[in-house]
């Protein structure tokens, strides 16, 4: 059983027969009433996002999810195709199920395949990925002295605020949990 202090982003819970992944959670103290925990969850099968509230002290049951090493192969319309690197089995997942993870899908990226009762239900991304900048305003000499940022579009379509010294063609490291710039790689 999982209590509020054990919750973390990405944890998969089984609630009322549904597989739900924790997106955000907060604890709210109410005057004259018992505190409540609010959890924002994504249905692992449909991709639908729901919000649930529980009284403080409620225990939730974690889902028995298996993790296997896999690799992203290619995108076909709204489907993203992955391969289990141990069995070489290929399977598709929809963009709705992957959510914001679609912003980091590049051919060949290694992921953790989440499966429930033998069925793939999602993927867990690495903490950081390296993406190439395809569009941004030009950098100028002396930009490294200031701490300003500018928007940059990555090869996957993701938009990230980057330091002024980053140029088109540079490769940067992005944190997949927050979507924020980490460092310039090249």
What layout of secondary structure does this protein have?
Blueprint: E1 12-15, E2 18-28, E3 36-43, E4 49-55, E5 66-76, E6 79-84, E7 90-94, H1 95-98, E8 110-116, E9 119-124, E10 128-136, E11 149-154, E12 159-163, E13 171-175, E14 181-184
Antiparallel strand pairs: 1-2, 2-3, 3-4, 5-6, 5-8, 6-7, 8-9, 10-11, 10-13, 11-12, 13-14
Could you explain how this protein is built, in words?
The chain is mainly β. It has 3 domains: 4-55, SH3 type barrels; 66-124, Nucleic acid-binding proteins (OB fold (Dihydrolipoamide Acetyltransferase, E2P), Beta Barrel); 128-184, Beta Barrel (OB fold (Dihydrolipoamide Acetyltransferase, E2P)), CATH 2.40.50. The chain is built from 1 helix and 14 strands. The strands form 3 sheets. It has a 5-stranded antiparallel beta sheet. Strands 12-11-10-13-14 form a 5-stranded antiparallel beta sheet, with no helix packed on it. It has a 4-stranded antiparallel beta sheet with strand order 1-2-3-4, with no helix packed on it. A hairpin with a 2-residue loop joins strand 1 and strand 2. It is flat. 20% of the residues are buried.
Features:
five-stranded antiparallel β-sheet, SH3 type barrels, OB fold (Dihydrolipoamide Acetyltransferase, E2P), 2% helix, 14 strands, mainly beta, 51% strand, flat, 3 domains
Q: What is the CATH superfamily of the largest domain?
A: Nucleic acid-binding proteins
How much strand content do the residues show? over 45%
The structure class reads mainly beta
Question: What is the count of DSSP helices, taking H or I runs of 4+ residues?
Answer: 1
Q: Please provide the count of β strands.
A: 14
Give the end-to-end Cα distance, rounded to a whole number of Å: 45 Å
Number of domains: 3
Shape: flat
What's the pLDDT, averaged over the residues? 88
CATH topology of the largest domain: OB fold (Dihydrolipoamide Acetyltransferase, E2P)
Order of helices and strands: EEEEEEEHEEEEEEE
The parts where pLDDT drops under 50 for at least 5 residues are none
Look at the structure and give the CATH class of the largest domain: Mainly Beta
User: Strands across the major sheet, in which order?
Assistant: 7-6-5-8-9
Largest sheet: 5 strands, antiparallel
- The helical percent reads under 10%
CATH architecture of the largest domain: Beta Barrel
